Amino acid sequence: MIRLNLDVMMAKRRISLGELSARIGITQANLSILKNNRARAIRFSTLDALCRALDCQPADLLEFLPDAEDESEPPASLDC
Asked: Could you give the residue ranges of the DSSP H alpha helices within the chain?
C-alpha cells in the first residue's frame, strides 16, 4: 500500500487546505481526498504541484507500507 502523507507535510509547512488549494489550483474536496488517503491514483502533474507548493520531494509525501492491508472501505476514485 502507498500512503500519501500530505497531512503531515501540510502540518510541517503550516499550510491550510484552503491555502494549498489556491496555490496549486485543485479543489479543496479533491485535496481532502488526497489528504485522507482515499485516492486510488495521483497524476505526476499533481504530485509536481504539491512538491513545488510544499517545497518538498515526492519521497516526503509518499510512503510504501509493504505489509499494510487495504482499508475495509474502498477509496474514492479521483482524477486530479
From this structure: 6-13, 17-24, 28-35, 44-54, 58-61
Task: Domain ranges for the chain, please list them.
Answer: 2-64
**The architecture CATH gives domain 2-64:** Orthogonal Bundle (1.10)
What span, in angstroms and rounded, lies between the C-alpha atoms of 80 and 16? 19
pTM for the complete prediction? 0.81
pLDDT by residue for the chain (80 residues), tens digit each? Answer: 999 999 999 999 999 999 999 999 999 999 999 999 999 999 999 999 999 999 999 999 999 999 866 554 555 566 65
Other C-beta atoms within 10 Å of 1: how many? 12
